[in-house]
């Protein structure tokens, strides 16, 4: 099953001590859809696998150390 959701934040800010701070946040769901997945169209697409570790392409590109 593939679940997708699109939405937005409606924030209320207030200025405290010269800085803007979040006072209230409302999460609004604008749309959602659930679709049955019967085939993975990207199985043979030779895509790099994302990882929660240093070898991840994005982590390596940015020169970051991944921490859990």
Sketch the major β-sheet: 2 strands, antiparallel
Fraction of residues in β-strands: over 45%
Helix and strand run: EEH
Number of strands: 2
- Biggest sheet, spatial arrangement of strands: 1-2
Describe the model.
With 68 residues, the protein is mainly beta. The protein has one helix and two strands, in the order E-E-H. The mean pLDDT is 89.
Keywords, please?
68 residues; 1 helix; single chain; mainly beta
List the helices and strands and how they pair.
Elements: E1 2-16, E2 19-35, H1 57-62
Short description:
The protein is mainly beta and 68 residues long. The protein has 1 helix and 2 strands, in the order ββα.
């Amino acid at each position: 099953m593939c679940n997708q959701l699109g939405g937005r934040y409606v924030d209320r800010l207030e200025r405290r001590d010269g800085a803007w701070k979040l006072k209230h946040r409302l999460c609004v769901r604008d749309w959602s859809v659930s679709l049955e997945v019967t085939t993975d169209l990207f199985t043979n697409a030779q895509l790099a696998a994302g990882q929660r570790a240093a070898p991840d392409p994005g982590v390596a590109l940015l020169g970051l150390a991944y921490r859990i």
